[in-house]
C-alpha cells in the first residue's frame, strides 16, 4: 500500500516537473523571440531591469539572467527598485533576494508617496502623478548608472488591455510598444515580456516562489477602467479560445490602407493602377476568416531562442 502511494506521488512530482520545465522553456523562448524580433538587447548593452517586487518583474529578471548566461552576445544587467516609501513597504525583501542572485542592483529611495498624498485630494486616483514621478526617477537613475536600455515588465495582456483602454476611452488605436524611445528622448525602453501571457507568468512566479511584495501598499485601487477591460478579455478568453492570440497577432499585422487614418496613408492621391492589387479591397465580398487558434510565436526560431531549448 505504502509502495503504491510512494510511486503515485513520485509520478505526480515528475509530471509537475515536466510541466514546470515546459512553462519555463516557453517563457524563455518567448522572451528570446521578442528580444530578437525587436532588437531589444545588443552586444555591449547595460540593461536596467526595473523591479517592483511583483510577479512580472521578478520573472523578467529571472529570464533575462538566464539569457545573459547563454546568449551569443554580452550584456550587463543591473536591477533597480524604487522604494517609494509607502507605509509598510518591506524594504529588506528585495536586497535579500538580489544578494542571493549575486546580481548588480540599486535600491533608489524617494518618498513619492508623501508627494502624491500631499498633492492629490483624498479619494482621487493617485496613479497618474505617481507613475509620472516614478518614470522621471527611473530615467534619472538610468543616466546615473550608464544604462543603455530600460527593461519594464509589461506583458502581452498588459499590451492588449492598453490597446482597448485607448480605443474605448482615448479614441486612439495605440498600445504599449515592445520598444520605444522614452519621452525625454534620452533612453530606449524595452518590454522583454511582450510575447508572454500573464497566466504563464503567474504560474511561473508561484512555482519559483518569488518573494512577492503586495502591490496595494499605497492604498490606491488599481485603475477601474483597466480592471474592467481585463475582465472583458478574460471573459472572451474563456468563451472564445484563441481570440486573445488573434488580437495580439493583429497588433503585429497592421494594414494602414484599410484603416481610416489619413496621416498614416495617403488616401487622397490613390488612383486605379489597372494592375491586380493583392492588398486591395474586395469591396462587396464577405470577408472569410479561418478559425485560427495558433499561439503568438511564428514557427521560425532565432539564435537566442534556439539556445533556450
Ligand atoms: S497603484 Fe499606487 S504605487 Fe501603483 S501607480 Fe498607483 S499610486 Fe502609484
From TrEMBL:
Keyword match ATP-binding: yes
Subunit structure: Homodimer.
Record's cofactor remark: Binds 1 [4Fe-4S] cluster per subunit. The cluster is chelated by three Cys residues, the fourth Fe has a free coordination site that may bind a sulfur atom transferred from the persulfide of IscS.
Keywords, in A-Z order: 4Fe-4S, ATP-binding, Cytoplasm, Iron, Iron-sulfur, Magnesium, Metal-binding, Nucleotide-binding, RNA-binding, Transferase, tRNA processing, tRNA-binding
The protein's required cofactors: [4Fe-4S] cluster; Mg(2+)
Placement of sequence motif PP-loop motif: 52-57
Note: The thiolation reaction likely consists of two steps: a first activation step by ATP to form an adenylated intermediate of the target base of tRNA, and a second nucleophilic substitution step of the sulfur (S) atom supplied by the hydrosulfide attached to the Fe-S cluster.
Gene: ttcA
Native source species: Alteromonas gilva
Lineage: Bacteria, Pseudomonadati, Pseudomonadota, Gammaproteobacteria, Alteromonadales
Catalytic activity: cytidine(32) in tRNA + S-sulfanyl-L-cysteinyl-[cysteine desulfurase] + AH2 + ATP = 2-thiocytidine(32) in tRNA + L-cysteinyl-[cysteine desulfurase] + A + AMP + diphosphate + H(+)
Segments passing through the bilayer: none
EC number in record: 2.8.1.-
Similarity comment: Belongs to the TtcA family.
GO molecular function: transferase activity
Pfam families for this protein: ATP_bind_3 (PF01171)
Purpose: Catalyzes the ATP-dependent 2-thiolation of cytidine in position 32 of tRNA, to form 2-thiocytidine (s(2)C32). The sulfur atoms are provided by the cysteine/cysteine desulfurase (IscS) system.
Subcellular location: Cytoplasm
EC category name: transferase
Region called Disordered, residue ranges: 276-302
Domain tRNA(Ile)-lysidine/2-thiocytidine synthase N-terminal: 46-208
Coiled coil: none
UniProt pathway annotation: tRNA modification
Ligand binding ([4Fe-4S] cluster): 127, 130, 218
Name by which UniProt lists this protein: tRNA-cytidine(32) 2-sulfurtransferase
Domain of life: Bacteria
Amino acid at each position: 500500500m505504502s509502495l503504491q502511494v510512494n510511486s503515485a506521488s513520485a509520478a505526480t512530482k515528475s509530471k509537475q516537473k515536466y510541466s514546470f520545465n515546459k512553462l519555463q522553456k516557453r517563457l524563455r523562448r518567448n522572451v528570446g523571440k521578442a528580444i530578437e524580433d525587436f532588437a531589444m538587447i545588443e552586444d555591449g548593452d547595460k540593461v536596467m531591469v526595473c523591479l517592483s517586487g511583483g510577479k512580472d518583474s521578478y520573472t523578467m529578471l529571472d529570464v533575462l539572467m538566464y539569457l545573459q548566461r547563454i546568449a551569443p552576445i554580452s550584456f550587463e544587467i543591473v536591477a533597480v527598485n524604487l522604494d517609494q516609501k509607502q507605509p509598510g513597504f518591506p524594504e529588506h525583501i528585495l536586497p535579500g533576494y538580489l544578494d542571493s542572485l549575486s546580481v548588480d542592483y540599486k535600491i533608489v529611495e524617494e518618498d513619492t508617496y508623501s508627494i502624491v498624498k500631499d498633492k492629490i485630494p483624498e479619494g482621487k486616483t493617485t496613479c497618474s502623478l505617481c507613475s509620472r514621478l516614478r518614470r522621471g526617477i527611473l530615467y534619472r537613475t538610468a543616466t546615473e548608472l550608464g544604462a543603455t536600455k530600460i527593461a519594464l515588465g509589461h506583458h502581452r495582456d498588459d499590451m492588449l488591455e492598453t490597446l482597448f483602454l485607448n480605443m474605448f476611452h482615448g479614441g486612439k488605436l495605440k498600445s504599449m510598444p515592445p520598444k520605444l524611445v522614452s519621452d525625454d528622448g534620452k533612453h530606449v525602453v524595452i518590454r522583454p515580456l511582450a510575447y508572454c501571457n500573464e497566466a504563464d507568468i503567474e504560474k511561473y512566479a508561484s512555482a519559483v516562489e518569488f518573494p512577492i511584495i503586495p502591490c496595494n501598499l499605497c492604498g490606491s485601487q488599481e485603475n477601474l477602467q483597466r480592471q474592467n477591460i481585463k475582465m472583458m478579455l478574460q471573459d472572451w478568453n474563456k468563451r472564445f479560445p484563441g481570440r486573445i492570440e488573434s488580437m495580439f497577432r493583429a497588433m503585429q499585422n497592421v494594414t494602414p490602407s484599410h484603416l481610416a487614418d489619413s496621416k498614416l496613408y495617403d488616401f487622397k492621391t490613390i488612383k486605379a493602377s489597372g494592375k491586380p492589387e493583392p492588398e486591395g479591397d474586395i469591396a462587396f465580398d464577405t470577408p472569410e476568416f479561418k478559425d485560427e487558434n495558433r499561439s503568438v510565436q511564428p514557427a521560425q526560431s532565432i539564435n537566442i531562442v534556439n539556445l533556450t531549448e
